[in-house]
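call fold(seq) -> tokens
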Amino acid sequence: MEILSKQQFIMELDDVEALFTERIIAEEEEAYRKPHFGEIWICEVPVLVVDQTEVTFVKMKRPILVVDDGEQHFVKKDLKNYYGLKITSQEDVYQRKKIINYRAVGLHKPSFIRLEIPMKLEKAQFCYYVGMYGLEKTQKILEEIRKRIRKQMPN
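ret:
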């Protein structure tokens, strides 16, 4: 689960809201089809927001790169769940992969894929299709994540 400051939460929320208001996101009927490996979707994910002494749990819609669509790209023997990586416009302390041609994949501003362990998602969390990032590029990102995981595993 992601932990954001209230300021970070507002910035991320503004980014996703702009996708809706600028009509960047595909038509609503796209939401009913199955997400596929290499696609970018808006998903509803849990976020913990910390504001000085107040801690709040909220659901937030944010762009996600699908790295497993039940076809065992990332998790073997899990045929019903999806796995995805968060996409953000914030370039900060986390390891990020810049999306070079962000408009071509349906995003409205420079964006970065967060290189971390993919989060487990259920079909009900997928709201809207945004665009296709690409099969080869997504496979390269998965390989990079696998290398990072192996590097941190004890021998």
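The CA atoms of residues 84 and 118 lie 5 Å apart.
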